[in-house]
Amino acid sequence: MVREDLLPWARESDGYCGALGLVNRETGEALLVTLWADDDTRSRSAEAAERLSSMAALASGADQESLENFEVSIIEVLAPQPSRDRSSSAGDGQ
Residue 63: what are its φ and ψ, rounded to 5°? Predict the structure, then answer.
């Protein structure tokens, strides 16, 4: 439901900057964080986001515990770097 409905809607919303889904596989708890350009664009999306969040919880059988607003104080996302297999270059002069 999140990938099929919530994310496409969010991508079309003014001010949407991204999302981060977190899950604890041991407990089944999940958290979805959406990122917005500013408080105004987040506020304009809040009513529709609340409806979509409730629908996603209902469809998945999850409990929706809360929707909370936070200001991002730091964000850093690094793309994984491919590892280089050094054993294949052993003895080739490199």
Answer: -95, 130
- The Cα 63–Cα 89 span in angstroms is 53
Q: Where are the domains of the chain?
A: 1-62
Q: Whole-model pTM above 0.70?
A: no
CA–CA dist 65, 54 (Å, integer): 10
Query: What are the structure tokens assigned to 81, written together?
Result: 């770097």
Dmax over CA atoms of the chain, in Å, equals 63
State mean pLDDT over 7-23. 85
Quick one: which of 91, 89, 94, 15 has its CA closest to 48? 15
Contacts of 19 (CB under 8 A, 6+ apart): 7, 10, 32, 33, 34, 35
N-term to C-term CA, the chain: 50
Task: Please name every residue paired with 21 in a beta bridge, in sequence order, or none if there are none.
Answer: 32
